[in-house]
Design brief:
The chain is of the alpha+beta class and 305 residues long. It has twelve helices and ten strands. It has helices at residues 22-28, 119-123, 140-155, 160-178, 180-185, 196-206, 214-221, 225-236, 240-258, 263-269, 275-286, 290-301; strands at 16-19, 38-45, 52-55, 62-69, 72-76, 79-83, 87-91, 97-101, 108-115, 130-131. The strands form two sheets. A six-stranded antiparallel beta sheet has the order 1-2-9-4-7-10. A four-stranded antiparallel beta sheet has the order 3-8-5-6, with no helix packed on it. The N and C termini lie far apart (61 Å).
Length: 305
């Protein structure tokens, strides 16, 4: 049992979350576009130490929890589950429940609350942990990008157009889970699957948010670490670790340019929990700090007076 003084519902370093006002939710419940399916809360909690939530009074919303790293524990009524890395669960509406992060390996989770006339349909069959394993052509990054699109759209305000668009993306996001096989098979990977370096790069991209070692990548493609590093450097001209870091910084540049996420949030989004290390790595690759990069990009976009 966790020390009750350490329990936290929110407030994690690098977190992003939105709780829609009740007036906005009431508006969506009357709108024919959003009435069938809409979110009420959405967020991302990285490395959520001491995360704990208990609801003894039931709510009329489903809760989706998508764990991408670490472990957590969930209880719904008399049923208990352990939610591992690369697993997802949807807690049913109208059911008392609790969930908590593991003390030693706290989870990193994407989560959202959703409701509407079609909520039952999309939640069906997801009331216990299901695997969302990262593998070739799993399209995991695309699924996470859809989640990010909902979150970013909501951060831009609650206009009718934003609410409609977020709901449209929510259909797609939930569809990638309910129809996982169809989602994976709908787009065959374009690169040569026999090219193990391309496979390694894809694995890096799919695991951008995690603390992945090069031995993890080598193990995934079936090479020894030394042989993998040698082959990778011959093909790309740089070590796997340097290549992975460059991928992370490229992604950080996109987030600095296209979102209003804080520096520490971006650091967590690319799997780096030490903000100082992130800043040093960013400056090493881009020759400017993250703050300076964003400032220069903003100045470049600003129209001349």
């Amino acid at each position: 049992m966790k020390n009750p003084h350490l329990r936290k519902k929110e407030g994690f370093h690098g977190e992003r979350s939105i709780f829609l006002p009740s007036a906005v939710i009431q508006q969506m419940e009357k709108d024919p576009v959003t009435l069938p399916l809409h979110i009420t809360m959405i967020g991302y909690y990285p490395n959520a130490h001491n995360h704990y939530r208990e609801r003894t009074e039931t709510i009329d919303q489903y809760i989706l929890i998508y764990c991408i790293e670490g472990t957590g524990y969930i209880q719904v009524g008399h049923s208990e589950w352990t939610l591992h890395c690369e697993q997802l669960i949807v807690l049913p509406a109208h059911a008392p429940h609790s969930y908590t992060a593991d003390d030693k390996q706290p989870w990193t989770i994407y989560w959202l609350h959703f409701k509407g006339n079609l909520a039952d349909y999309f939640a069906q069959g997801l009331n216990k942990p299901i695997d969302i394993k990262i593998k070739i052509d799993s399209r995991t990054n695309e699924r996470i990008s859809l989640f990010e699109e909902i979150l970013t759209t909501m951060q831009h305000g609650y206009s009718k157009q934003n609410l409609h668009y977020a709901t449209t993306v929510l259909y797609h996001f939930l569809g990638t889970i309910k129809y996982m096989e169809q989602f994976v098979n709908a787009r065959m990977h374009e690169s040569n699957k026999d090219d193990l370096v391309e496979t390694a790069i894809l694995y890096m991209k799919e695991n951008m948010e995690k603390r992945v070692s090069m031995s993890d990548v080598a193990r995934f493609i079936g090479y020894s670490s030394s042989h993998f590093c040698q082959v990778f450097k011959e093909k790309t001209g740089m070590s796997p670790n340097d290549y992975f870091n460059r991928l992370k910084i490229e992604r950080a540049c996109e987030l600095l340019d296209q979102t209003n996420m804080r520096i520490n949030q971006i650091s967590y989004k690319i799997g780096i929990q030490d903000n100082y290390y992130f800043s040093r790595l960013f400056k090493k690759v881009m020759h400017v700090s993250p703050q300076k990069y964003r400032k220069d990009m903003f100045a470049h976009k600003k129209p001349a007076e």
